[in-house]
Q: What sequence folds into this?
């Protein structure tokens, strides 16, 4: 494969409600920051691809106006996935493999504040047999948490993930939720949807992120320590919750194997609910020596369609700033970790 | 450079206003199974699945790739979902081809669909424009002023739009999958149909359809071994530009011209009118045929309508356009672009049946979307590039 690296990443501070700016106004500064951070002139970027979801905006074609933030004139080579920005990154990485283009802009945006997210995500489920029962997104995650607990785990493990994530988030200025809490006191709080307590769930976030990829010599030229993508893969599982073992994540394990996700120092895992972090850790066989979610992860900031790309951006940042030599970024999509992407990056 | 690749399997559903006999996954499987059968392979021979459709609101299912993973045999495989407005069917095929061109996969299944009977697409397409009163009613409301501008610029006579409406419905009679089969279609019938968005009459407009189209895109080795002749991909291109800004030419958009120039450069095309044997282009309203003839370089600026008028674009003409009946005869929106790409491939494979263009060796597939701002195209041939 052709050598491709993340050379720049930018994100907006995640907030509960970004009510002063629309999506284009959110994207403009973050895209400009990523481009300027890369040192590649805007007009020289070869490929552009974004990820977003119309249902968050409540209007069709919500990505169309996003193009206004890019400066798409003269016309550009551009595409869009109705998926988390991490899959836009995948499309960009594939496109750069053709060899005729050397750089790509990847971006995504999501405002969870515009509608009742818990209910909107119901429309992601089987429209004939499951969605009409209206199981909201937290209840669906609670089913998985229950199954995981019954497979031999304790609620205290979940509280520890919550406490550690929110504590680590104090060092992340982009995080929305950060606090110092004792896991034992967290367990005294009431259930939101049993066995999930409020701290087991992600915040509702508005956010946007942008990333620049560069290939070969261009990456070396514009970045002192590019985060070289050594492996990138994604896999999907069956949709029906009843046909899956919800206590494991075989698609993550498979993507991790294909991406060569071993010997990493840092892993940013897209685990919006506390019980999902240990499931992903096990699937990726991450030992205790691996630092997981130093940014605070999706439990500290969870802008829909952005949080996955942000995990990869955070993992890349550790390479670029010299604090790690090999890192892993993970993104998930769908109910109960149905679809998973693993991106392994390294310094060279 | 990018790896050589080919279309080795094509499958389409019968298009109709309401496919009440199948569920959403049933609709996709109908197209996908036919594509696999044509390619002579099974579900397990597929490495990855790429689906595309227009807005999720058309069926009310958010990010339907998740729900469709089982039906499309994608479990344990990579699966992606593309959405680039009306051009999405074309863009989806390009993303699938890109995976093979990158050398990552050998065989990719790509499916585009729309089940428009699940909702009312006209209102889903009536998107409010910034700083403008909400007076749009459907895509026709957006495109009618652009068509009027074209007619003013080119001094095209009124009957050209009607001719396209007749020609594409006559072509559809030779395509068993087409939604509209109007046996007694005539110039008078189109001319006398109701004016919807002046100058677009009812029969100069695309229908609202349910349907899916699927293709298997394969690498060179798989193309060489395919049981039926493959359609080799000679070029792929996409271009986008913003919806509106001062000075933008929305009638003859630069994104389309740049896109086709890129495509012709890849395919070594210097005289498209002579070198290309036929084209399937995205014509949702009749007048877009002459408009795109100019944008695609088949005619000089202001001259596109003459190609329709003198019969050049008819089934017997020197550059048959939309022998399948086109978008005017079948329009499952998210699939409409892929149907253009697939029909172009069918022609160079010699498998278009009654609507086969004699001697079609090199064909263009075209799709556009948004406010004439997103373009996706490919060039396919009977010979290897």
A:
């Amino acid at each position: 494969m052709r050598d491709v690296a993340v050379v720049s990443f930018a994100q907006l501070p995640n907030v509960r409600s970004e009510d002063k700016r629309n999506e284009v106004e959110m994207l403009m500064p973050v895209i400009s920051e990523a481009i300027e951070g890369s040192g590649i002139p805007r007009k020289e970027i070869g490929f552009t691809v974004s990820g977003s979801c119309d249902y968050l905006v409540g209007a069709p074609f919500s990505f169309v106006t996003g193009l206004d933030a890019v400066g798409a004139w003269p016309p550009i080579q551009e595409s869009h996935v109705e998926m988390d920005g991490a899959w836009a990154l995948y499309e960009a990485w594939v496109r750069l493999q053709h060899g005729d283009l050397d750089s790509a802009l990847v971006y995504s945006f999501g405002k969870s504040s515009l509608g009742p997210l818990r209910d909107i995500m119901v429309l992601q489920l089987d429209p004939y047999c499951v969605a009409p029962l209206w199981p909201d997104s937290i209840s669906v995650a609670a089913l998985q948490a229950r199954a995981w607990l019954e497979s031999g785990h304790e609620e205290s493990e979940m509280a520890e993930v919550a406490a550690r994530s929110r504590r680590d988030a104090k060092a992340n200025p982009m995080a929305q939720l950060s606090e110092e809490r004792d896991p034992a006191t967290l367990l005294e709080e009431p259930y939101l949807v049993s066995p999930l307590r409020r701290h087991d769930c992600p915040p509702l976030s508005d956010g946007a992120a942008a990333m620049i990829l560069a290939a070969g010599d261009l990456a070396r030229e514009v970045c002192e320590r590019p985060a070289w993508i050594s492996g990138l893969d994604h896999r999907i599982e069956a949709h029906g919750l009843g046909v899956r073992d919800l206590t494991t994540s075989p698609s993550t394990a498979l993507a991790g194997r294909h991406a060569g996700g071993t010997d990493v120092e840092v892993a940013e895992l897209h685990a919006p609910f506390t019980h999902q972090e240990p499931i992903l850790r096990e699937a990726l066989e991450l030992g205790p020596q691996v630092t997981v979610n130093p940014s605070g992860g999706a439990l500290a900031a969870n802008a829909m369609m952005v949080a996955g790309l942000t995990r990869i951006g955070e993992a890349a940042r550790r390479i670029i700033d010299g604090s790690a030599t090999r890192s892993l970024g993970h993104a998930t999509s769908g109910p109960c970790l149905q679809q998973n992407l693993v991106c392994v990056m390294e310094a060279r | 450079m990018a790896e050589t690749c080919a279309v080795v399997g094509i499958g389409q559903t019968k298009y109709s206003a309401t496919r009440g006999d199948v569920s959403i996954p049933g609709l996709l499987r109908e197209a996908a199974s036919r594509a696999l059968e044509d390619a002579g392979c099974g579900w397990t021979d597929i490495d990855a699945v790429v689906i595309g459709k227009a807005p999720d609101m058309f069926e009310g299912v958010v990010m339907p790739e998740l729900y469709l993973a089982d039906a499309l045999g994608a479990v344990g495989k990579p699966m992606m979902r593309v959405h680039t407005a009306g051009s999405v069917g074309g863009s989806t095929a390009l993303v699938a081809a890109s995976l093979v061109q990158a050398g990552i996969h050998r065989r990719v299944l790509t499916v585009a669909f729309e089940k428009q009977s699940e909702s009312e697409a006209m209102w889903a397409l009536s998107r409010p424009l910034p700083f403008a009163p909400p007076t749009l009613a459907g895509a026709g409301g957006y495109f009618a002023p652009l068509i009027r501008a074209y007619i003013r610029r080119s001094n095209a006579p009124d009957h050209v739009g009607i001719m396209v409406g007749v020609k594409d419905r006559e072509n559809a009679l030779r395509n068993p999958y087409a939604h509209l089969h109007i046996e007694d279609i005539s110039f008078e019938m189109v001319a006398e149909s109701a004016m919807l968005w002046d100058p677009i009459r009812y029969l100069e407009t695309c229908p609202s359809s349910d349907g899916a189209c699927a293709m298997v895109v394969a690498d060179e080795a798989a193309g060489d071994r395919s049981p039926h002749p493959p359609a080799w991909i000679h070029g792929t291109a996409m271009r986008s530009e913003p919806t509106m800004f001062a000075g933008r030419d929305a009638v003859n958009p630069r994104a389309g011209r740049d896109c086709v120039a890129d495509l012709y450069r890849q395919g070594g095309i210097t005289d498209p009118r002579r070198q290309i044997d036929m084209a399937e282009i995205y014509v949702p309203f009749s007048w877009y045929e002459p408009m795109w003839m100019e944008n695609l370089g088949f005619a000089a600026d202001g001259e596109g309508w003459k190609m329709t008028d003198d019969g050049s674009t008819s089934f017997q003409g020197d550059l048959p356009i939309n022998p399948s009946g086109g978008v005017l005869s079948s329009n499952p929106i998210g699939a409409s672009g892929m149907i253009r790409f697939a029909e172009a491939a069918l022609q160079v494979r010699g498998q278009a049946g009654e609507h086969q263009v004699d001697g079609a060796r090199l064909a263009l597939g075209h799709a556009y979307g948004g406010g004439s701002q997103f373009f996706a195209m490919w060039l396919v041939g009977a010979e290897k590039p």
